[in-house]
Design brief:
The chain is mainly beta. It is built from 3 helices and 33 strands. The protein has a 5-stranded mixed β-sheet with strand order 2-7-8-9-10, with no helix packed on it. Strands 1-33-32-31 form a 4-stranded antiparallel β-sheet, with no helix packed on it. A 4-stranded antiparallel β-sheet has the order 3-4-5-6, with no helix packed on it. Strand 17 and strand 18 form a beta hairpin. It is globular and about 60 Å long.
Length: 417
């Protein structure tokens, strides 16, 4: 009996010990890193701050500012698109792309006008702006005036930015379609379907046009190349492979925009891999186990990524060897990384923007809008909006400045010395 009692006690101790370990692992899985005090070596200057309407609220969105020819373009989910002077932030023009935009009478009678649901873009090319919508439309606007030039319906929501190249526009949809459109008329040259599993992430890969092909990641974890001239698939290669047993573990979407350097293309998948492939044949040059649904950034032979857990990582593009990794922003829902001067910049869900040294991976500066300039009225109208200043899309480099847009629609220009 004594031996049995000892065995039972030991067994219970092991069970509770393992349960405790599992509980700790679960806690670690959902832990959100706290912002630690930082002795900044570089001070961030706020150059100007304006607004592009009501922003995107808490909806999923890939609306990102675009900067070209000293003009910054920004949009909100409802349908407003605004052009700002890059240096001063002064408004150049503003337009509402809805077919029936709100009128003064609507405002006076508190009438709600349906939003356009802008969600993918802005892409600036061919002297136009291209934006996708959750309603399945692709819109083109004049960069000079903001006039809506054309509107074309495609098969499915356009939640990734359209891409421009070789005289065409390419878009992907949440329904799995890839389409090529004429940039001046919106005429669809071709539209083909890719496989979409029963369960996938909210989002799609923004295509890349290069070498006569449209390169795009798919919801089945593959990198696919479609011949631009004819809309015929050339090759596809698996980036992610299903390894788990649960539905969440089976998600292997390749939602990252393919990055091209010479004859090599780089892609990454959720629950999958970061891979380098030969662009002509699809042959895998190297693969490394990383998981992400954000776009990659590349500079001077180094790939930068934010993985699904909020780690910021630098990888040698030629070999796939990791150069550095930072776990200081674990689970802080980071944007994709952006190369700005000698730093890598990411935003997080609380509206902090973190500047990493490109070489060492150390955080050298941080920026968040101060509360001192907020009025009592501002606090009242934003009382229930938890993510009002959260970062949701990558910053954009404009000259020597960094343009950021937060969920509340604020558009700001920052500068590092």
């Amino acid at each position: 009996m004594l031996k049995q009692a000892k065995f039972t006690a030991i067994t219970l101790a092991l069970v509770f010990g393992l349960a405790g370990c599992e509980s700790n692992e679960i806690k670690e899985e959902f832990r959100i890193a706290e912002i630690k005090p930082l002795n900044s070596t570089k001070e961030v200057e706020l150059v100007w701050r304006e607004t592009a309407g009501a922003g995107v609220d808490n909806y999923f969105s890939n609306l990102t500012p675009a900067a070209i020819d000293n003009v910054v373009f920004a949009a909100n989910r409802d349908g407003e698109v605004v052009a700002f002077d890059e240096n001063s932030g002064d408004e150049i023009w503003s337009t509402d792309v809805r077919v029936n935009p709100p009128t003064l009478w609507d405002a006076l009678t508190f009438t709600t006008v349906k939003p356009e649901k802008l969600s993918g873009g802005i892409t600036a090319a061919y002297k136009n702006l291209y934006i996708g919508t959750e309603n399945g439309d692709v819109l083109a606007l004049s960069q000079e005036t903001g006039e809506v030039l054309w509107r074309t319906e495609v098969k499915g929501e356009v939640v990734a930015a359209p891409s421009a190249g070789e005289g065409w526009i390419a878009v992907t949809t949440a329904a799995g379609y890839v389409a090529a459109l004429h940039p001046d008329t919106g005429e669809i040259r071709w539209q083909i379907a890719t496989d979409v599993p029963a369960l996938s992430l909210r989002g799609t890969s923004s295509p890349t046009i290069a070498g006569g092909g449209v390169l795009v990641g798919t919801a089945t974890g593959k990198l696919s190349v479609i011949i631009l001239e004819r809309g015929i698939p050339a090759w596809e290669q698996a980036i992610g492979t299903v390894q788990g047993s649960t539905e969440l573990e089976k998600l292997i979407d390749a939602d990252s925009k393919p990055v091209i350097n010479g004859t090599t293309v780089y892609s990454i998948a959720y629950n999958g891999n970061l891979a380098a492939l030969d662009m002509m044949s699809g042959r895998v040059l190297w693969k490394r186990e990383y998981s992400s649904y954000r776009n990659l950034a590349m500079d001077s032979g180094v790939l930068y990524l934010t993985d699904a857990k909020g780690n910021v990582i630098a990888v040698d593009a030629a070999s796939g060897i990791e150069k550095w990794t930072s776990s200081e922003l674990y689970n802080r829902r980071l944007t994709q990384p952006v190369v700005y001067k000698d730093t890598i910049v990411v935003g997080d869900y609380e509206g902090y923007f973190h500047f990493f040294d490109k070489t060492t991976g150390q955080i050298v500066s941080r920026f968040k809008f101060a509360d001192y300039d907020r009025s009592v009225f501002w606090w009242f109208v934003n009382w229930f909006n938890f993510d009002e200043e959260g970062a949701y899309a990558q910053p954009v480099v404009a000259g020597d400045m960094l343009i950021i847009q937060t969920r509340d629609g604020k558009v700001s220009a920052l500068r590092l010395p």
